[in-house]
Amino acid sequence: MALVPYGDAVLPASLGRLRRPSAEFRFADRTVRLAQDWQRLGVAAVVWDAAVVLCVYLEAGHVALPGTKAVELGAGTGLVGIVAALLGANVTITDREPALEFLASNVRDNIPPSLQDAVQVSELTWGEGLESYPPGTYDLILGADIVYLEDTFPALLRTLEHLSSERTVILLSCRIRYERDQRFLTELSRSFTVEEVHYEVQGDIHIYRAMKRPERADL
């Protein structure tokens, strides 16, 4: 979500892999090769571990993807949305406008011609222009490492509310780094049931499943 450029001097040595111009993975019996551009687009243009863990979770079959209408929020390099599409979902892959050209290039390079119609790249700044997205029409909402900037939490919550119906499954893959991250989950649970469905110990990454609570009929 945040498009913050960083110089090499700022990036810790332990994260040197993020300086690489590309990252390669194997999902859905295909090689997925993604461009990275830390210096130009910052956190939006590198593959974070939470995205990889969510892709592993999807490939393991924990969610029925074929024919599913899905949307990825804050897609960055597009890894999660690309893998969801390769596994059979119809996916709208979204991010803010400055990242779209970069994101679309990764999608074009990794989605075979036979699946191009099942994927679209679209601008979505959380909380803005939501009327362009029909409310409650998605079966699945995906987000990897998008819970980290407290200023964006109210807009993210509004976006999740708008895109969800009571049948929509939300999967959020993230580290809980700070108390504010836990507060986001608390706020989310006011309108959604939230449960942890996976924990990857090595990377300290949680996957949370959320679904909108049914609205109570007036008594």
UniProtKB/TrEMBL annotation:
Q: Which one of the record's GO molecular function terms can you name? A: methyltransferase activity
The UniProt entry's GO CC annotations, sorted and at most eight, read:
cytosol; protein-containing complex
- Which reaction(s) does the protein catalyse, per the Swiss-Prot or TrEMBL entry? L-lysyl-[protein] + 3 S-adenosyl-L-methionine = N(6),N(6),N(6)-trimethyl-L-lysyl-[protein] + 3 S-adenosyl-L-homocysteine + 3 H(+)
Short name of one Pfam family:
Methyltransf_16
Q: Which InterPro entries match?
A: Methyltransf_16, SAM-dependent_MTases_sf
Instruction: Kindly list the biological process annotations in GO that this record carries.
Output: methylation
Record bears the keyword S-adenosyl-L-methionine: yes
The family assignment reads: Belongs to the methyltransferase superfamily. METTL21 family.
Mind telling me what this protein is named?
Protein N-lysine methyltransferase METTL21A
Instruction: Provide the gene name from the record.
Output: METTL21A
